[in-house]
Amino acid sequence: MALSNKTSMNESNSVLYVSICSAESSPGIYKKVTGFINGAKKNGFQSQAKIIEPNGIRGNIAFIRQILFAKEKNIIIRYIPKLGFIIFVLGICLKLKNQRFFIDVPTPMTNHLIEIFNGHNPRLQKIVNILFIVLMGSIPFLSCTKIIQYSNESSFFSFLCSKKILLIGNGIDCDSISPRLESPLWPAETLKLVAVGTVAFWHGWDKIIKVISQINKDETIPYNIHLSVIGDGPDLKILEKLVKNLGIQEFVYFPGFLSGSLLEEQYKKAHFGIGSLGWDRVNIKLASPIKTREYLASGLPVIYSTKDVDLAQNNELAIYVEAREDNKELKKILSSMDKRIIPHPLACYEFSTLNFDFSKKVLQILDY
């Protein structure tokens, strides 16, 4: 799939973003790629995206061909660890053609290893994947122009290329998001929360489920908490079992994957969006989740853990919770929400356009 301008791609401000993803199975990545291109166009770049459907070896070959034969001045790719050495070679080829090569690394490699280790793939597959990444080290990044990262990388994976790293917050396309015009009434008998994304252990949504179980049994707290967990993922059944074991099925819902108007309706009903609460489980101490940004652009304040590149911890639009397994701070905050005022949706949206929009991020990345 190509999203492009009709003008010639031979000028120095031309941009190509290549990624393997799917609008259906990985909508967050898809929106990020297309949002980046829209942000580039706002700044006058001749830009296009080549989005390749995941298709095993064929998809990888198509990915490599798009990069190798690209004519644009600036080539950006979403990093694929298993193609590490090939990406190193592609960087050399592009450098010989006087093209700039940017590698977008969504998760620091050390943390990616932890994700693999804690994943649900067969043990042998985990070992092979981890060994390959460790043996490659920083080699894949040595030939690129710049490495785009959203959290701190280890010295091992940044060896000889630390000066190429741009630490930046994730961007979103605010123009593609319609913010709600008003928030639901608060205080009220029910505090409505929504958590959207891949249901995986690093989001830590089991933490808030356990806290909801405790709060909703406490008669001194003048409200109940309801949570909608929207999405699918490797740990969905684990959360469903947890909810059943705690006996709180009437308070926690699993509507599955939602998008478009159906997702917007969920946002309109909610008081707060729940960001990632479990980054500590993959040793991430600095992050910039896309979903946190989408909540705010939709007019929805957030509750999140782990320091964010673009958010001050005392930001009134986003409640920061220290990432801990004992859940004490999370329980304390959720037990006193009746003392808080819900920020106006337009304040959330305006903050997003000033701090998160790709029209701002593109210039930082491309150095224009």
Output the keywords.
368 residues; alpha/beta; 6-stranded parallel sheet; 12 helices; 36% helix; 18% strand
Describe this structure in words.
The chain is α/β, with parallel strands linked by helices. 36% of the residues lie in helices and 18% in strands. The chain contains 12 helices and 15 strands. The strands form 3 sheets. The chain has a 7-stranded mixed beta sheet with strand order 1-3-2-4-5-6-7, sandwiched between helices. Helix 1 crosses helix 12 and helix 6 runs parallel beside helix 7. The protein is globular, with a radius of gyration of 21 Å. About 2% of the residues have low confidence.
Concise account of the structure shown:
With 368 residues, this protein is α/β, with parallel strands linked by helices. It is built from 12 helices and 15 strands.
Count of alpha and pi helical runs: 12
**Into which percent range does the helicity of residues fall?**
25-40%
Reported for the largest beta sheet, the result is: 7 strands, mixed
Structural class: alpha/beta
Radius of gyration: 21 Å
Can you give the mean pLDDT? 93
Give the uncertain stretches in residue-range form: 4-10
Shape: globular
Work out the strand percent.
Answer: 15-25%
The main sheet orders its strands as: 1-3-2-4-5-6-7
Distance between the termini: 27 Å
- How many strands appear in the DSSP assignment? 15
The helix/strand order is EEHEHEHEHHEEEHEHEHEEHEEEHHH
Task: Compile the SSE list and pairings.
Elements: E1 2-4, E2 14-20, H1 27-42, E3 46-52, H2 56-68, E4 74-78, H3 84-96, E5 100-105, H4 109-118, H5 123-136, E6 146-149, E7 165-167, E8 190-196, H6 205-215, E9 224-230, H7 236-246, E10 252-256, H8 260-269, E11 272-274, E12 286-287, H9 290-297, E13 302-304, E14 307-308, E15 318-320, H10 328-334, H11 345-355, H12 358-366
Helix pairs in contact: 1-12, 4-5, 6-7, 9-11
